[in-house]
Every structure is written in C-alpha cells, then in structure tokens.
Amino acid sequence: MPDRAVTFADLSLGYGHQAVLTGLDHVVRRGSLTAVVGANGSGKSTLMRTIAGILRPIAGRCAIGPNLRLAYLPQQSELDRSFPARTIDLVGLGLWPRRGLIGRHRAGDRRAVRAALAAVGLEGFANIPLDRLSGGQMQRALFARVLVQDADLILLDEPFNAIDSQTVAVLLGLIRHWHAEGRTIMTVLHDLDLAQSHFPEILRLTGIAEAEPAAAHRGRQVLRLAAGGPA
Ligand SMILES: Nc1ncnc2c1ncn2[C@@H]1O[C@H](COP(=O)(O)OP(=O)(O)OP(=O)(O)O)[C@@H](O)[C@H]1O
Questions:
Q1: Less Cβ crowding at N or C end of the chain, within 10 Å?
Q2: CATH number belonging to the domain at 1-68+152-231, selected among 3.90.1150.10, 3.40.50.300, 3.30.56.70, 3.30.750.200
Q3: What pTM value is reported for the model?
C-alpha cells in the first residue's frame, strides 16, 4: 500500500522468547509525525529497534513500505563517544548508504555535510573531536547526520533527554521541517506535554505490566492511538 510507511500485523516483539509487547496491529501512515509514549519499560525502544530491523519480531510482521530509506537514532546512552573521530566525520557517516564506508565523497557531499552542521548551529565544530562535545552539541551533530541521510522514515529514540531548551527548540524545528517535506517521523518521548503540543499523532504503548484487564485476558497488549496536536 503506497500510503503505508510501517505496518504492524499481529506483531509480538521482545528479546529471545521474552515478549515485551504482543498482538500489535497498526499502520503508520506515510508523512505522519508520531510521538511514541508510555511508561518506563513499556517497550518504546524495543519497538524502535524492531522497526529499524535490529531486532527480529518474535511473531507476526513489522513491514516497512517499499523503497523507504530509514534513519534510526538510538538513545545517546547507547552510543560510544570515545570513538576517535571529529564532528564532521560523524555527520559524514550519514552518506554511507549512498557512498559506502570507504567511498569517495564528492564536492556536493562535502557541501551537504557543511550545510547540515550549519542547520543545527554547529558551524565552527567540524574539526572538534566527539569526546569534546556536550550532550546537546552531540545531539545536534547526530541530527545533522540524519539530515545528511536524507531518509524517508526517521526513528528518533528520546532525542530530547537531558538536552537544554535551546537545543530542543532547534531540533524540534528540524523535525517540523522534515514533516513539512513529507517524511515519516516516529519519536519516542517521555514528555507528554511536548508530545501533545508538537506531535499530531501519539502512540501510547501499554506494556505487559499495565495492560488493561480485558486486553490481558485476550493475551494482547494495548496500542492506543490518541488524538494529539497543538492544544
Ligand atoms: N537487551 C535486552 N535484553 C533483554 N531485555 C531487555 C533488553 N532491553 C530492554 N529489555 C527489557 O524490555 C522491556 C522494555 O524495554 P524498553 O527499553 O523497550 O522500554 P522503554 O519503554 O523504552 O523504557 P524507558 O522509558 O525506560 O526507556 C523492559 O522490561 C526491559 O528490561
């Protein structure tokens, strides 16, 4: 179906045989902007890893629309910042799906990387080593990498965790820009106010521990789509 970015069909996901969520049926429309919310441990990151193809479903199907380029930004805590690289190298990695890891960058590529650094307010940071960036600067650099990836489907896991309000405003602006360009964006958030004021669609995950009795009785968890949008 051309209007489908992601389809969950009786999807169960988790680790090994240990299910975190079961029986999910849902369609994420192309061009939609969705916040994924839920309590700690409800399975938000696990859902992102499954959509990104890092985790295989335990059962059922998680299908990405045909020919969709995907960009996945995990939580910062999952990243190794001691890697000896400069900011510009990290952002340039966004080109690898098109150029390969050792492929030559063209003049246009270098311009795209510089433009992405400028778009996130990191103009003077190209040659700064990653381990010298603050948390907010690192998140800006990671968004610049997503910008360079030019993906159709963008998955962001808690992108505003421990980030200053000025950086949140810059990154939210980028998300709005991507949405206006027709890209599909799914963002894990724990800040419900932020989700309700900036995200037109909200997926609320109810983990196994807090499943509604009727749903639990049927052995299914609840994936609620709540109406959101600017208050
Ligand atoms: N690598 C792993 N192996 C086994 N179990 C895991 C693994 N990662 C997470 N879990 C478990 O899966 C469940 C869901 O975790 P997940 O990180 O997806 O939740 P979350 O909603 O993103 O939580 P938070 O809001 O705290 O980030 C939790 O019970 C967690 O302990």
A1: C
A2: 3.40.50.300
A3: 0.89
